[in-house]
From TrEMBL:
InterPro entries reported in the protein's UniProt record: C-type_lectin-like, C-type_lectin-like/link_sf, C-type_lectin/snaclec_domain, CTDL_fold
All residue ranges annotated as the C-type lectin domain in the record: 43-151
Keywords for the protein's UniProt record, in alphabetical order: Signal
SUPFAM superfamilies xref list: C-type lectin-like
Membrane-crossing residue ranges in chain numbering: none
CDD domains assigned to the protein according to its UniProt record, in alphabetical order: CLECT
Full protein name: (Mediterranean fruit fly) hypothetical protein
Keyword rRNA processing among UniProt keywords: no
PROSITE patterns referenced in this protein's UniProt entry, alphabetically: C_TYPE_LECTIN_2
Length: 206
């Protein structure tokens, strides 16, 4: 075995050492990503089974590597409205990322800390009844509007949750038909690249 082969063998052992954790991370990422549905330029996961308070909803979305929905434009509001109606969810209410916990009347998104760019308030909203600081969307006549709500309401008054995420590069399948994903920093990708660069030393597909 010449020096080049020895170096390759050492590198290959190091790659194998990292494959287990790499595969586990990849499967977890695929599982999370598969929950989301594309609506215009974003990906959403609508949780319409369990009600949560606003803080629980924030944590729930973060566990999915996402954020509470941040409705940034009329186009997005219209798109999410159509999506919810098409899926029979027009009678439910949903948290958004907007809140004025930091400063009364100044609504910011928990996802980026910036003032919200778009509002579509319902009639006489926001009214800050009983110190309401967190924003939900709720429908009237099949049109969703924004409303301020208590961040920790009683269960009967708790909305459901919509999480959103951009489509990150590491969730784009290599081959759509294979439904396989390799994160850019994953050791197995480095192994594949090395295999392909070394010609017939080994069969990279096996």
């Amino acid at each position: 075995m010449d020096l080049g082969q020895k170096l390759f063998a050492l590198f290959f052992v190091n790659i194998l050492f990292n494959l287990t954790s790499c595969a586990a991370d990849t499967k977890g990422s695929i599982a999370k990503a598969s929950l989301f549905t594309q609506v215009i330029s974003k990906y959403y996961y609508v949780s319409a089974i369990a009600k949560m308070n606003w803080f629980q909803a924030v944590h729930f979305c973060r566990k999915l590597d996402s954020n509470l929905i941040n409705i940034a434009s009329k186009a997005e509001m219209d798109a999410i409205t159509n999506f919810l109606i098409a899926n029979g969810l027009v009678n439910k209410r949903f948290w958004t990322s907007a809140n004025d916990l930091e400063e009364e009347g100044v609504y910011k998104s928990i996802s980026n800390g910036q003032p919200i760019a778009y509002t579509k308030w319902g009639d006489n909203e926001p009214n800050n009844v009983n110190n309401e600081d967190c924003i939900e969307i709720t429908a009237k006549n099949n049109i969703f509007y924004m409303n301020d709500n208590d961040c920790k309401p009683l269960l009967a008054n708790m909305p459901y949750t919509i999480c959103e995420r951009e489509n990150p590069e590491d969730f784009i399948p290599i081959k759509a038909e294979a439904r396989e994903v390799v994160p850019p920093n994953c050791s197995v990708k480095k192994l594949l690249e090395l295999c392909q660069s070394m010609g017939n030393i080994m069969n990279c597909r096996d």
